[in-house]
Design brief:
By secondary structure, the protein is of the alpha+beta class. The chain has a single domain, classed as Small Protein B, Chain: A (Beta Barrel), CATH 2.40.280.10. The model has no long low-confidence stretch (mean pLDDT about 85).
């Protein structure tokens, strides 16, 4: 049997753009995700939404990351063997990384959010976890104004050339 070629996959990537608008992202971590077969096929089919998701650190029986409120839609051909769309999903990371995130999340105003869900070059589902601190409304307005200035600058530079 021939080996599969490693490289760019054609599977979709899901980004949480809302999180980048509402939070300052201080640190990121790539984690694996425990999925059922129908969930993997549904993600490859493009039936996923991570906009409402958040991640918590559970200490019992051992430290682990759990992703909540991520909606992976039903995969129609699986019929009765389908999964629940909004079930809690365990994330896979090293114990040291989980403990480090747990210490940082204990601070006030810090949370963990899924930033991106994608398949890596090996075909494994991964989640980019962001350590996030909430933005005030004036910070959001300032970020929007900065983006507008950058767009205007780019337009001016493109007209000049």
């Amino acid at each position: 049997m021939a080996k599969k070629k490693k490289g760019k996959t054609d599977a979709p990537t899901f980004e949480n753009r809302k999180a980048r608008h509402e939070y300052f992202i201080e640190d990121t971590l790539e984690a694996g995700i425990v999925l059922q077969g129908s969930e993997v096929k549904a993600i490859r089919d493009g039936r996923c939404s991570i906009g409402e998701g958040y991640i918590s650190v559970e200490e019992y029986p051992k430290p682990r990351l759990v992703m909540h409120q991520v909606d992976i839609g039903a995969y129609q051909p699986s019929g009765a063997l389908n999964h629940r769309p909004k079930r809690d999903r365990v994330l896979l990371a090293h114990k040291r990384e989980i403990e480090k995130l747990a210490r940082q999340v204990e601070q006030k105003g810090v949370t963990l959010v899924p930033l991106k869900l994608y398949f890596n070059s090996d075909g494994r589902a991964k989640v980019l976890v962001g350590l996030a601190r909430g933005k005030q409304s004036h910070d959001k307005r300032h970020a929007i104004a900065e983006r507008q200035v950058q767009r205007d600058l780019q337009r001016a530079m493109s007209r000049k050339m």
